[in-house]
Amino acid sequence: MFIRGKSAIYYRICISSAFLIVCGTVFLLSSSVSYGISEGGNPLMYLYERIIWIILSVFLLYVLNKIGIEKIEKISFLIFIFSLALLTIPVMLNLIYHKPEYLRWIKIGPLSFQPSELVKLTFIIFLANYLNMRDKMINNWKVLLFPVLFFLFIIIILQFQKDMGTVVIMGATFFFLLFLAGLKMKYITIFSILGVILIAGLILLFPYRIERIKNFLNPLSDPKGGGYQIIQSRITLGSGGVFGKGLGRGEGKLSFLPVVNKDYIYAVVGEEKGFIGTSFILILFAILVFSSFEVSTLAKNNFDKYLSAGIGTLFGFQFLLHALVVISIIPSKGTTLPFFSKGGSSFVINFLTLGILIIIAKRVCIKGDLDDFLDF
């Protein structure tokens, strides 16, 4: 019974992950048919792209597994620095060429890569190793200063890229890992206050963010402009009712709701599968997140503990921000839904992040069960 109980965590992660990837691919296809026709004349264009990304992700995960988590841990700082260097490239290209398409992406011919997706993962890996090496020292301000400075650097670069969503997601993950590492309440209070001031400052510094909040608070004041997406998201999501209109039968994706296959794909789930469908996706993410926390509590070394908890927090906040935008609880942040939204960078990095979690869960839960059985 004990063996099955521990191993069940690993299998829950695997099964919920498989469902998320399959459901995400199905709803990407459903939401992208019209885009595929208008952009390439092929209604299955985004499905073919997703299949390519899945194949690439499986190959990269195979390579990662061969390298081993232990090796990744040893070179975590170098990987993080490399990702930071990549993050600055779009900013430099935008300053040189003054083209908006270089704002967040590195483009090489028809291919593009969004470095901020990689930084979200490498920052967690770096933090997990850093906190592991400085166990019991987290309340020393000199120890805290090093990762805080890196995080501030990331925030500055992301402001050039007008990416507030990634700042919020990484900030929440950073804060949670510090809390998990035993940060004292006085530091938690200070960081909370500074975090609120920082977010308020970043909003006030950019007029378009203030305007976005105004539109969010009163979308009917500009129903064909700034309030259009908010209104259409509510209509699309709400029109599905309890059971939805049926897969593929949604109307919001037919040019009524902009970027529906990216920033508002959860609304398509609601329209086509209703409250039942959105609740099912919510449950899948909840299983994934809380199972990762269970892995964290069972881990026998701090690196696995922090990394699995950080990955769970990352997925949890990405889902939460996306869903809250769709149901109009917070202003739009352009946050994608992992495994559902279009985008190769997002899918591949999320797939590798998930793969790392599964590798950790396997050695913590499956190997742990075997060790406990042998000890018995």
Describe the structure.
This protein is mostly helical and 376 residues long. The protein has one domain (2-375). The protein has 13 helices and 2 strands; from the N terminus they run ααααββααααααααα. The chain has helices at 2-40, 45-67, 69-74, 76-97, 115-133, 141-160, 164-180, 185-205, 207-217, 228-238, 265-298, 302-326, 344-375, and strands spanning 106-108, 111-113. Strands 1-2 form a two-stranded antiparallel sheet. β1 and β2 form a beta hairpin.
Roughly what fraction of the amino acids lie in strands?
A: under 5%
**Estimated helix fraction:** over 70%
SSE arrangement, N to C = HHHHEEHHHHHHHHH
Largest sheet: 2 strands, antiparallel
Number of domains: 1
- Strand sequence of the main sheet, in spatial order? 1-2
Q: Spans with pLDDT under 50 lasting ≥5 residues? A: none
Instruction: Tell me the number of helical segments per DSSP (H or I, 4 or more residues long).
Output: 13
Sum up the overall morphology in one term.
globular
